[in-house]
Amino acid sequence: MSPRGRRRDEFQMVPDAHFTSYYGRPVVKAAPWTADIPAYLFLGGLAGGSSLLAAGAQATGRDSLRRTSRLGALVGISLSMAALVHDLGKPARFANMLRVAKPTSPMSVGTWVLTAYGPMAGLAGVAELRPFLPRSLRDGAVGRLLGAAGTPAGALAALAAPAVASYTAVLLSDTATPSWHEAHRELPFVFVGSAAAAAGGLGLLGASLHDAGPARRLAVGGALLELAAEHRMEQSMGLAAEPLRAGTPGRFMRASKALTAFGAVTAAVLGGRSRVAAGLAGAALMAGSACTRFGVFEAGQESARDPKYTVVPQRERLNARLGS
Amino acid sequence: MTYDPATASGWVDAPARKGFFTDTSVCIGCKACEVACKEWNAVPDDGMSFLGSSYDNTGALGASTWRHVAFIEQKKPVDLGMPSTARPGADGDGRADFRWLMESDVCKHCTHAACLDVCPTGSLFRTEFGTVVVQDEICNGCGYCVPACPFGVIDRRIGEKDTPKVGVAQKCTLCYDRIGEGLEPACAKACPTKSIQFGDLDELRERAQSRVDVLHAAGVHDAKLYGESEGDGVGGMGAFFLLLDEPEVYGLPPDPVVTTKDLPAMWKKAGLAALTLLAGAVAAFAGSGS
Questions:
Q1: Is residue B23 part of a domain?
Q2: Domain span at residue B103?
């Protein structure tokens, strides 16, 4: 077998595509988005999952998990907002997003979800900083207000959190970008799984062994969901799955699977006994989640740049309809 | 009764839907449309480059290219109508073995426009003429319309800080300022062969069909309309074409579908995924006590 032979076998399900294009130029345009967007996909998922863990930890008295998760959500959502505004062509006009509410625009829906979620997650996170305030502030009106606001704010954030973690899949899929659109059946499950794995991973890193049980279970469950949904997604995408396996996005996706599987196994086997193993598993799961987001993002961009992914499926669809 | 996007968008007593019929069979590739568009709309220069693709050094539609003339060179016999001295059927009987396809591409002003659907600021809107236009002062350059368009038409303008409208989405307006005053768009006005025709969409569709009939009768069996049918994936295009080859030869998608057609199904899956995450989080705490 030639060195290239094995590689080709992988793709035999999809025969070499013969198609016509205009000088090989793209038909659709790739999104003008930079690394800000996949970074946001990761950070937003991390924040959403963490708010859920924080609310549960609050309800069950797991202080170290609550603190870690609330602070994780605060940092995650703050960096998310910075990334989103930074990616605009006119950052000063970011508030124009609030002019309308459009269910046909996942970005508009996401704007309102984040408008509901962000301040609550932020307040709950800032409430965790109360012990670090100077005594006069901490015991004064501001400090007491913060202390009282943390729990309801955290609960409200947790209510919005599942939407924060899942709508981003629709954001990508609602485009003409082949590898994003064709992923629309499974991508929401990949993304919530990835969010759960990342948030659980952060919990494993930051919470005590005594408190980290739910983070471990969420992390392992999320990792399994992500791996299973991603596998199914690649099966259902047809030709558009190809960019997920090749080049830079392929490297991200392979790293994602390896890190996620390693993190889940380590968390399940050793995460309840060893603080070091729990931390290692947590870091691997977070890195795996980030790789998933960058892999899916880059695969879409690649599929938009190559006219093959637009023309071939459409031509097949058209020929089938015309009966030729 | 045909679906009228202007009425569907809330316009009362909207004028007849306006559009373009671009008949590529009479395009001579002069690029007057590209120039007229740039001049009238003050669209800035977007680079001088030699692309090595026949006479096309424009490349593609984009933020600063609202008309783009495509040139395709094909080895295919075509009757030039020239006198010949050879016997009929022999080589060199006046038929060249080469043909040149030329097509002036433009925004399709779709009946169901994905760019407009996904715009989160309301900057993209449906005009009373049924066209789709960017409001420059409202667009914040989120870029979502760019990957949403199934034709790769709209783009975010890049350039120096002093470039007009830099950072915001830009595309053909079907000369909203001109047609509101009863004028025809700059490209159609400049076209010397009437390859670009502007008018009421209903009338253009009839005219296009009779043109196809004439071409078929003359033996040009490749002639076909692209985007004229309300049954296509974007509900019909406000700017449609007569092509002499398959759409992808010209860089057009063969079977475009507005991405928002699948959006209800996408929201359902996302809702299910959100519930899965919520249930998973509850389960992670369940039974563990405090």
A1: yes
A2: 15-82+91-257
ipTM of the complex: 0.94
Nearest to B154 by CA among B120, B108, B122: B108
Nearest to B147 among A21, A31, A89 (CB): A31
- Distance between CA atoms of B228 and B212, rounded to whole angstroms? 12
Residue among B167, B249, B284 whose CB faces A214 most closely:
B284
Q: By the 8 A CB rule, do B8 and B158 touch? A: no
pLDDT at A324 over 70: no
At which residue do the structure tokens 């809107």 appear? B125
CATH code, domain carrying B45:
3.30.70.20
B264's tokens: 């209800």
Instruction: Name the domain count of chain B.
Output: 1
pTM for the full predicted model: 0.94
Give the pLDDT band of residue B93 (cuts 50, 70, 90): low
Q: Do B280 and A218 touch (CB under 8 A)?
A: yes
Residue B183 placed within a domain: yes
Q: Is residue B172 over pLDDT 70?
A: yes
Distance from CA of B201 to the nearest CA of A (A): 25
**Is residue B184 a part of any domain in this protein?**
yes
Rounded to whole angstroms, the Cα distance separating A207 from A219 reads: 13
Question: What domains can be seen in chain A, in order of their start residue?
Answer: 32-322 (1.20.1630.10)
Task: Count how many Cα atoms sit within 13 Å of the Cα of residue A315 in the half-sphere of its side chain.
Answer: 18
The three-state DSSP-derived secondary structure of B164-193 is CCCCCEECCCCCHHHHCCCCCCHHHHHCCC
* pLDDT tens for each residue of A219-248: 999 999 999 999 999 999 999 999 999 999
The predicted-structure confidence for B132-153, as pLDDT tens digits, reads as follows: 999 999 999 999 999 999 999 9
What are phi and psi for residue B225, nearest 5 degrees? -90, 150
Residue B287 lies in a domain: no
